[in-house]
């Protein structure tokens, strides 16, 4: 019984870590699209902050969606 409980807990942890990593990779892809690969390139602090604010709004909307 303890073994099965441990096994189930490990599966849940695996699912949560996978979801977290997928979310972080998606956020990095979005930053790459909006900040690095933008033509003309905008590596200024203002450009980074505008993209950060955009990401915060997107994350807040995603959290409220659940």
Brief sketch in words of this structure:
The chain has 66 residues and is mainly α.
Task: Walk me through this protein's architecture.
The chain is mostly helical and 66 residues long. The protein has one domain (2-65). The protein has two helices and no strands. The protein has helices at residues 2-36, 45-65. Helix 1 (2-36) runs antiparallel to helix 2 (45-65). It is elongated, with a radius of gyration of 18 Å. It starts with a helix and ends with a helix. The relative contact order is 0.08.
Based on the structure, what is the oligomeric state of the protein chains? single chain
> Helix proportion of residues, in percent?
over 70%
Distance between the termini: 33 Å
Radius of gyration: 18 Å
Q: What count of helical segments does DSSP give?
A: 2
| Total number of distinct structural domains | 1
Apparent shape: elongated
Biggest sheet descriptor: none
Q: Order of helices and strands, N to C?
A: HH
Mean pLDDT: 78
Q: What's the total number of strands? A: 0
Structural class: mainly alpha
- Note poorly predicted spans: none
User: What percent of residues are in strands?
Assistant: under 5%
């Amino acid at each position: 019984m303890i073994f099965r409980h441990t096994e189930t807990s490990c599966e849940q942890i695996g699912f949560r870590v996978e979801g977290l990593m997928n979310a972080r990779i998606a956020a990095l892809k979005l930053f790459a699209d909006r900040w690095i690969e933008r033509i003309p390139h905008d590596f200024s602090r203002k450009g980074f902050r505008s993209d950060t604010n955009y990401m915060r709004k997107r994350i807040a909307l995603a959290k409220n969606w659940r």
